[in-house]
Amino acid sequence: xxxxxxxxxxxxxxxxxxxYLSTRMELFAVTPKWRSRRLAVRVAYLVAKFFVRIWVxxxxxxxxxxxxxxxxxxxxxxxxxxxxxLKKNPPPADVYVAGSDQIWNTNSENGxxxxxxxxxxxxxxxxxSYAASFSVSEIMPEYKDFVRGMIQRLDSVSVRExxxxxxxxxxxxxxxxxxxxxxxxxxxxxxxGFSGKKISGKYILVYDFDGNDGLREFAKEQxxxxxxxxxxxxxxxxxxxxxxxxxxxxxxxFLSLVKNAEVVxxxxxxxxxxxxxxxxxxxxxxxSRHQVNSRMEDLLDLVGLSDRMIxxxxxxxxxxxxxxxVVGKVLAAHIEQSKRYLNGAICGDF
Length: 350
What we know:
This protein has 2 domains: 2-185 and 333-347, no CATH class; 189-319, Rossmann fold. The chain is of the alpha/beta class. The chain contains 12 helices and 13 strands. The protein has helices at residues 2-6, 50-53, 62-72, 83-88, 141-151, 162-170, 187-194, 213-226, 251-260, 269-277, 294-302, 324-347; strands at residues 10-16, 42-46, 75-80, 95-98, 126-129, 158-159, 177-178, 203-207, 229-232, 244-245, 263-266, 281-285, 309-310. This is Polysaccharide pyruvyl transferase family protein. Keywords: Transferase. GO terms for molecular function: transferase activity. It holds the Pfam family PS_pyruv_trans.
């Protein structure tokens, strides 16, 4: 959203909250203005924001996220409960954009919801995806026809994982472009300024979706060896072995926790993404649901850090030192390509 605003667009997020998500997460969406061409180009952007997904089940964090939404996000006046409501009264826009985290994951209901493929948009309005994620390594056969039918109606298609491009090809769609997650479009200087107040102390940050035994023991060993405390951020429950538990943290505090950590250990895509942005030492543990590991594997492979992913205890021994000069050059090239795609897709040039 912020990147689009910086490009001169007027951005509005569609307040989309279907029943199947009403107790798990809030979804917002987008609308821009292409001032540089003196055109009233408006873009509606249907997006499951990373900072919402990070905390989807943490009811105690709801106020933090409501406050964040009210302060930083421009949301449609109308709230929509299903694709039919969106079709009857779509928010006015010149372009609709769908993205990003797991919106096309057909293992979840949102991946089977036509709204996330912009089905509601009037046919004469441009529809594009930015960094849409399947999250998994393959689509189950029973959903392939549905996904193909939805995506082939879009004017421009981009996906977040390189594996996503292969998935598109496997269902007969060859025009998909690989781009980076939206968080990379803004760069470190923006996130430095946007993060919350500095977190004191020297610590390992743990973000564990699964209650992973291997992750726990690794974090404890690292803390002992390096003389660090363990700080935890967890969207399900408190972490019993943590010295400090930030289970009520909001988006800005989460960013600050990553930024100020000595080491980040977790199994979250966005913990990985922000570890790269803030150039942290980090380790990524495999999730218990193996298919969802593809999004983290893809990003690590892209930047040449696959040995930072740990699926078995013996892998945790001695990964290579991270050379952020090299990583930065790789990311910079892909960020430029991602911006080029998004700007072109919105204007109809891609």
